[in-house]
Amino acid sequence: MSDLVQVSKDGEIGILTVNNPPVNALSPGVPEGILEGVEQFEKDDSVKAIVLIGGGRTFIAGADIREFGKITAGGDQRRGPGFNAILNRVENASKPVVAAIHGTALGGGLETAMACHYRVAVPSAQVGQPEVKLGIIPGAGGTQRLPRLAGIQKAVEMCAGGDPISAGEALKYGIVDKIIEGDLLAGAVSFAREKAGSPPRRTRDLTDKLGTAEANGPIFAAACDATKKRQRNLVAPLAAIDAVEAATQLPFDKGIERERELFQQCLFSDQSKALIHVFFGEREVAKIPGISKDTAQIPVGQAAVVGAGTMGGGIAMVFANAGIPVLLKETDQAALDRGLATIKKNYANSVAKGRFTQQQMDERMARITPTLTYDGFGDRDMVIEAVFEGMALKKQIFGELDKVMKPGAILASNTSTLNIDEIASATTRPEMVIGTHFFSPANVMRLLELVRGKATSKEVIATCMSLSKKLGKVGVLVGNCRGFVGNRMFHPYRREAQFLVEEGASVEAVDQALYHFGMAMGPLATGDLAGLDVGWRIRKEFGDARNTTVRQPLIEDRLCEEGHYGQKTKSGWYKYDENRKPLHSEDADRIIAQARKDANIQQRSISSDEIVERIIYSLVNEGARILEEGIALRAVDIDIIYLNGYGFPAYRGGPMWYADTVGLKKVCERVLDFEKQHGATWAPAPLLKRLAEEGKTFADFDKQVAQGAAAAEARS
Ligand code: T1G
């Protein structure tokens, strides 16, 4: 019997325990072990029913995603009967099989549970078919069994949306038969005793909830419409809807065949490869060379935020949402009142949308204590400064924090561009200083750039990395340079968008090209949203320091000079109606035409392919520099930053992964073309050039980094 599935008995109940830490993925040996166990209990006359349970922290988190790369288009040849056949065999068992769920039953985990005859779960359990998040669809009967248990509407929602549901909801929809309070195994065993002796109830035989063609038609049509809007350009969710539709049209086994076909089509798609890269990438970024699970951490039970503006207020909400009480400091009562009113309004919106209850809102508000002084800061484990982006002010505040915070407290700055070492120099404890760059709106955006200063201690980094997860963020560690990773790359990205307009592309053409590429928003519309005046003011302040030998964008300064700051003035690259709908702007037309004339730029027609190449390759080229300088640890770190902070489409894997898929040779050739046409800013990054010449990818670069880190660890 496989070690991965253990067999035991409690009286006449046979118990199968899956033991494949950390998440009981269905690695080779697990499905086979389950089947062997079921067959053994079938033969054992003393056993009347079977319980299948997960050992450790969870039931079964699904297929082993690491194995996907080994599956070939011809199917998984290394394995025996195949997972579907195993599940059919479990479903056809002569004795009732009860799945006992804690933690998560996801993907193949839920499919296994649905092939059992009954399911019980602890209240905190979650079940789901998250495959679409990996660019695939359920591939082991999920699209056929789930509609039979939960009905078409819910099955479509779960298979196409991918979000898990709670045990309580699963009970309501018939996915789970009973919630077990208290000990799960004991509860599952006594449930199995009740079912012992009765004929197994096979999910495949349940047809009551499959509905009629008339009732189902509108459900599928609405699901397709919603998917095209919410999961724009994604293939898998539409395939998942097709597969569920097949459950309503075909007998079970034929439905399984159709599901298999659609699954195979998705599995070998570029989208799936990119999304799997993202799945592992989000976990990879948490791994920092030299920092391990044993690195000491600072417990953060209570925090404080300085500055109750948009960012500070959002950050306070993030802590309050995670159950961490937070002091929120402002310098004057009016600013504090404004900050609190915004927080209240945001929470009330969430309550109105049903995201949480009024009681939860009250609890969260109660965790935020407004203040005009540093009283109480001395007890806090961490402070985040989120004031106006000016070095003098930041240094003054860090000097004050150095005096009031207890020894061992983390001093964090939410700066988005400034030098963290200089900020730290205002304190006597630079090892406790770190940048925590949240993205606006802080309570919504998942990205958290953690900026490591020269002196930042490993304990502070380790703490902030795990705190990110607790706060519901993806923390990515970056080095100290102007703009860090995200904003440093964003600079050439927006610069090229403006140059393209100067050269003849329309504002709409630039934004549409990037939107069709998959960006959440075009670069010029993004400028309008963020406010064009922010960069303009900085340029005015640092004007003399600007490099006058390279071409600088012209139009945004002129828009600002005439008061077109973007959405906040209802006019920028676009003009905006009262619903913030962007409309073509004649003012922008006039300013653009004048700028072209003054700079003597010949207008030309520019294809959308060129627009995408210019803008996306500018990201890639700067990303390669950042990698080479060690500002980002790995290419995947850059990808995760762009996906979570800048609206880059996950199904393209991030800018560096995307460049790999295009081929670095081709990317580098285009960069060299652009250098010829547009000058020195387009000089290819040496790393890009080298990898292109060697026929390598950024993923190869990351592999080398990982090998280097493993070798260093082995030596230490
Ligand atoms: N396969 C391989 N490794 C996995 C894995 C999986 N399914 N799930 C997690 N891991 C690794 C992960 O990389 C990390 O490794 C460690 O486990 C802990 O994960 C046939 C085709 C279960 C909710 O999509 O959503 O079934 O970094 O840090 O926060 O139709 O992991 O430590 O080396 O995320 O407690 C469908 C994916 C597969 C579930 C736990 N299943 N996993 O979260 O821990 S497709 C999924 C998760 C499928 C069938 C199909 C989460 C989690 P390392 P973690 P966590």
Short descriptors:
six-stranded mixed β-sheet, alpha/beta, 11% strand, 716 residues, globular, eight-stranded mixed β-sheet
Describe the structure.
This protein has 716 residues and is α/β, with parallel strands linked by helices. Helix content is 49%, strand content 11%. The protein is built from 29 helices and 19 strands. Residues 22-23, 25, 61-66, 104, 106-108, 111, 130-131, 134, 136, 138-140, 142, 280, 283 line the site of (2S,3S)-3-hydroxy-2-methylbutanoyl-COA (T1G).
Pick out the low-confidence regions. Answer: none
List how many beta strands DSSP finds: 19
Q: What coarse outline follows from CA principal-axis ratios? A: globular
Whole-Å distance between the termini? Answer: 39 Å
The largest pleated sheet is described as: 8 strands, mixed
Bound ligands, named by name, code or SMILES: (2S,3S)-3-hydroxy-2-methylbutanoyl-COA
**Strand order, sheet with most strands:** 12-11-10-13-14-15-16-17
- Compute the CA-based radius of gyration: 28 Å
Q: Residue share in helices?
A: 40-55%
Structural class: alpha/beta
Secondary structure layout:
Blueprint: E1 5-10, E2 13-18, H1 30-43, E3 49-54, H2 83-91, E4 97-101, E5 104-106, H3 108-115, E6 118-121, E7 126-128, H4 142-150, H5 152-161, E8 165-166, H6 167-172, E9 178-179, H7 184-195, H8 213-230, H9 236-249, H10 252-267, H11 270-284, E10 303-306, H12 310-321, E11 326-329, H13 333-352, H14 358-366, E12 368-371, E13 382-385, H15 391-404, E14 410-413, H16 420-424, E15 433-438, E16 447-451, H17 458-470, E17 474-478, H18 486-503, H19 507-517, H20 523-530, H21 532-542, H22 555-561, E18 574-576, E19 582-584, H23 586-598, H24 608-628, H25 635-645, H26 655-662, H27 664-678, H28 686-693, H29 698-715
Parallel strand pairs: 2-3, 3-4, 4-6, 5-7, 6-9, 10-11, 10-13, 11-12, 13-14, 14-15, 16-17
Antiparallel strand pairs: 1-2, 7-8, 15-16, 18-19
Helix pairs in contact: 1-2, 3-4, 4-5, 4-9, 5-8, 5-9, 8-9, 9-10, 11-25, 12-13, 18-24, 19-24, 24-27, 26-27, 27-28
Bound molecules: (2S,3S)-3-hydroxy-2-methylbutanoyl-COA.
